[in-house]
Design a protein that fits this description.
Blueprint (H helix, E strand, L loop, with lengths): L9 H29 L1 E5 L14 E5 L12 E4 L8 E7 L4 E5 L2 E4 L2 E3 L13 E4 L4 E5 L9 H4 L2 E2 L3 E10 L5 E2 L1
Antiparallel strand pairs: 1-2, 2-11, 3-4, 3-11, 4-9, 5-6, 5-8, 6-7, 9-10, 11-12
């Protein structure tokens, strides 16, 4: 005995396809918004202030959730502040309540010499002294002579730090974590 089943018409197939396509696009958009707001933000390095560790045009992602584990000295962070026109990628040099001093191209934190192993030997930092407050971080680029950082903008607050670390994915020759 043969059942009389209605056959799917071409119109029904097209409608089903369009519905599935729109559903998948919507789910993808919601997932992207969730990832960008809670997990990782896209980062494109603009300029040479972090050279040689990050280069102009490098693209990758920075972890929003990783900053919840704390910000430590020499972490690479993404900063978004009302002081800025664009986000910055910089390195944390000074932490809250510290005295940061550069004297004769040597970094002192609270009077103790601190080595900066990520810098090229030919990098020069002008003398300066900054006393940080309770919620202040001092940020600098790795290419000190061209970097606009806390020496220009002043210290940044913890709220200005959007994300920590940069996973570079493009160009392929620069793949890595900073």
């Amino acid at each position: 005995m043969e059942e009389n089943r209605p056959q799917n018409t071409k119109k029904d197939v097209n409608t089903d396809f369009l519905f599935d396509l729109l559903k998948n696009i919507l789910i993808s958009l919601i997932l992207i918004v969730f990832i960008i707001n809670f997990i990782a933000i896209p980062v494109k390095v603009d300029g040479s202030s972090m050279y040689p560790n990050l280069k102009n045009g490098d693209f990758g992602f920075s972890g929003i959730f990783t900053k919840w584990f704390g910000i430590e000295r020499f972490d690479v962070v993404v900063i978004d502040s009302s002081k800025l026109e664009n986000r910055l990628v910089k390195r944390v040099i000074g932490l809250p309540n510290e005295t940061v001093e550069f004297k004769d191209n040597v970094l002192y934190i609270d009077g103790v010499v601190v080595d900066e192993p990520f810098l090229n030997d030919d990098v020069f930092t002008e003398d300066l002294k900054v006393v940080l407050g309770e919620n202040e971080y001092f940020m600098m680029g790795d290419n000190r002579e061209v970097s606009r950082d806390s020496r220009y903008y002043g210290p940044f607050s913890a709220e200005d730090i959007m994300a920590k670390g940069v996973l570079t994915l493009w160009p392929f020759s620069s793949i890595g974590i900073d």
